[in-house]
Amino acid sequence: MCACSPGRLFQAVVLVCLMLVPAQARAEGVLVFAAASLKTALDQIAGDWREQTGKSVTISYAGSSSLARQIEQGAPADIFISASVDWMDYLQTAEMIGPESREDLLGNRLVLIAHGRKPAGVDLGGDMDLAELLGDGRLAMAMVDSVPAGVYGKEALISLGQWGAVSEKVAQTDNVRAALALVSSGEAPFGIVYASDAVADAGVSVVAVFPEASHAPIIYPAAILASSTTPDAGKFFSFLNSPAAGEVFKAQGFAILSGQGDG
In DSSP terms, which residues pair with 140 in a beta bridge? Predict the structure, then answer.
């Protein structure tokens, strides 16, 4: 029976996976680790990059915390885009990113969504009783103690005096897109996601926008990893700051924080 610690076991699995992938295949194309909420926009941007350059981009989506831990344990990647400043700070402290490449790429808003089209709006003011609104239903959220969307959501609910009453009604998911899917499918009547997630799914509607003062600013920092040796990593990173990429991000509900859109 293996006596390896979970950390050592993960490292072993990563090493085995690397051995199974030919070195040439690993060297081709850019590998991006990105927060799940970026999927719709980044898929389009990666497609535009391939069309313009003929070069490939592979994007692995998950919660920012999970991706940062994978990078820490040796998973190969060229670029990391987090939905949390804290997780980028974590990797920078570990000297795993190129600090000179780091930038705040995007911003976002936190919203309350409901299943279906045109449901009644919700007033997030002092008289709101979210627990009563949920009834026997669940509130879909990303993991509230680790995944950024869940952390922001819990912070907002605490600020609004709602967390104590709804905490037992929360259905936690591995990432924000999984929470979105629960609401879109009707398995949960309400959920807390980013504004960009709501744009990406026709099965949900925004019924309220959380006050920006109720949670920490939602910032997406991006950086090239210190271990990256892929020649096109810097070029794709620059493409993320292009006016064309900026238009895609804005169309998906993100706020532009970097130099995107400048001619």
Answer: 171, 191
